[in-house]
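Q: Structure tokens for this one, please.
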Amino acid sequence: MAGSAIKVEFDDSKTQTFLGEMLDRMHNTTPAMRVIASIIRTSVARNFEVGGRPEPWAPLSPRTLKRKKGSKILVEKGFGGGLLGSINEQVTATTATVGTNKAYAAIQQFGGTIKHPAVERILHFRTFKRGERKGKTLFSNASKATHGMKVMGGAYDIEMPARPFLLIQDEDWVEMRAALGDFLIGGT
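A: Here is the predicted structure, written as tokens:
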């Protein structure tokens, strides 16, 4: 064995370049955060579309169901309005935030009690002087009323069930991890 030698050379310049590029990308992950925010927003929209995931949301009360006539839960005007239409995203170099600015969003997300205080109201009436309704007094809007009456409406509470719409699903985490990995290795 005397006089034999094995020489191994390792050129790590490509590895060093790759790691340097990855480090540069880690200083500003804004592009990755945009993709992640989009994944979350799409998932939230899907929650509205199917009426809750992974568990369906509590059904509407019979009174609300009668008023809304076939509308989906928490959806007033499609993607352009109401709670669903208010879903927005904000992105920085290190965060992806998806949320809403609607004041009533928290009670929908977490549930709770809505307390309505006693309120004084004016009921408007109109007494008809001619025609088929002559002599009848009926409820009216304020502009056509002939007289009004102050009444006190009693206080009441409404129990709102939780309908968590800002909820990230397990499959979303898989997709977000993949997007971040693609970004870090230079795929996006």
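A few notes: The CA atoms of residues 9 and 15 lie 14 Å apart. The mean pLDDT is 86.
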